[in-house]
Each structure stands twice: as C-alpha cells, then as structure tokens.
Design goal:
By secondary structure, this protein is α/β, with parallel strands linked by helices. It contains seven helices and twelve strands. It is globular and about 50 Å long. It starts with 10 loop residues before the first strand and ends with a helix.
Length: about 240
C-alpha cells in the first residue's frame, strides 16, 4: 500500500521503512513493514507515547498491528512504551532480558525517567509493566517479515552494555543505530556505558552497513558513514582508546 508517512508525522527512509523523532527527548523510533509482519524499533518513553505510536502505526498501515519489537538498548526513553504492544515478540541484546526483568532495573528506569522530566506517575506506571525481551541476540539474528528480511545485530557494548542495531537491506541500506550514534548532541556516556568498547562497536556498525548506507541515530537527523566514522574517532579521542 502507498503510505503518506509525512502526513502522519513520520519520515520515509525507504520503501516500507520510516522513523519518527519523538518530542521532548528527540528519541527515534523506526518502523519496518513486511507483507506478514510489522517491526518497531524502540517504543518511546512512556505508555502514553507507546499508545500514540500504536495509533499512528495503525493509521499508517490501514489497521495493522506491531508484531515484532527490537529494543536498541535499555534506557527509559527507548523502552517504557513496550507494554502497550500486546502480543508483540520482543527482541533485545543478550543480557537485556535479565536486566529489564529485574526489580532494580525498574526502579532505576523510573528514577532516571523522573530525573529527566517524565511525570512521576507516568514513570511509575510504565516501570510497573516493564517488558523484558523474550528473544535475545548474542550475534546476529535474521527476521523474515514477509517479502523482506532484516538483520538484528548485537554490535555493543558501547553506549550501554546491551546495544542492538537493526539493518534493513534495500537500494540503500538503512541502519538503525540506537544511541551508539547521536547527531543532535554529543553522544552521552552514562553509568552503564562502556567507553573502551564504544569505538569498536561503531566499527562493527560500519562493517554491517557499508559506505552507502543511511545511518539513523538514536537522537537526531539521519547521517552517513563519514559522520559515523568521525564520531567513532572523536569517541576514541574522548575516552583515550584506539
């Protein structure tokens, strides 16, 4: 079906591939449509954002539901909307299942969300129903969405201990990077970042996508391989690693 992505506030990246930059924290969510399945990359910072995404996706696709979710990394602005997508198969980097399945993670995500400006009741509601990935990716995992295959790649650690990229083949490959790459500000290294491994993670990302791919940061405008490589080199200088 023909989709008017822009009319619904989304950005078209390729045939059947789009993304939306969410308000407040400028986090990106990605959407990939196959003939049999609908994959969402990240779910927003609250149940309200998740519900808004669910409604938008239904409007975009003529009533289709999200069947698969890939979580880029376990930070509040990327995962707290997951629970509204009932029945979806959830994927994450290996270890994120144990992390997001624990009471400590729920409390840390709630605290971080409130500290970053999310309403306390909204943060608590989302943390109470936090969804841990059922499927964990330790290397690479190919998903068949129906007439389209996509690749989930555990390229981290780096920005976090559990960074999962999504590669969508096409005339120009689209690579969703999560917060391994940021364009609208300096890459953020929180307490769970592993700076010594971050440049290597970007090397793996570049090897997957190649020179001609469109790289979609977790925050900011779509960039190219030159930008990713420059950010990789800057991170290596910043954290004094090769």
């Amino acid at each position: 079906m023909d989709i008017d992505w822009e009319a619904h506030g989304w950005e078209r990246l390729a045939d059947g591939v789009g993304r939306r930059r969410l308000p407040v924290w400028d986090a990106t969510v990605g959407l990939v449509l196959g003939s049999r399945a609908v994959l969402l990359y990240d779910t927003g910072a609250s149940l309200t954002e998740g519900a808004e995404l669910r409604a938008q996706i239904s409007a975009l696709t003529g009533g289709r539901k999200v069947t698969h979710i890939a979580l880029s990394h376990p930070h509040f602005d990327h995962v707290l909307g997951t629970a509204v997508f009932a029945g979806a198969e959830v994927f994450g980097a290996v270890g994120s299942d144990d992390l997001l399945g624990g009471a400590r993670a729920r409390e840390e995500l709630r605290t971080d969300a409130v500290g970053q400006g999310l309403d306390a009741e909204a943060a608590e509601a989302a943390a109470d129903v936090l969804v841990a990935p059922r499927h964990v990716v330790s290397g690479e995992w190919t998903l068949d969405l129906g007439d389209r295959q996509v690749l989930l790649a555990n390229v981290g650690p780096g920005h976090s201990g559990h960074d999962l990229a999504l590669c969508v083949p096409g005339a120009r490959e689209v690579v969703f990077c999560g917060d391994l790459v940021e364009e609208s500000g300096e890459p953020q290294a929180g307490p769970d970042a592993i700076p010594s491994r971050w440049p290597d993670a970007l090397d793996r990302l570049l090897a997957l996508g190649g020179e001609e791919a469109a790289y979609v940061p977790g925050h900011g405008a779509v960039v190219d391989a030159t930008f990713v490589r420059a950010q990789r080199d800057e991170l290596a200088r910043r954290f004094e690693v090769s």
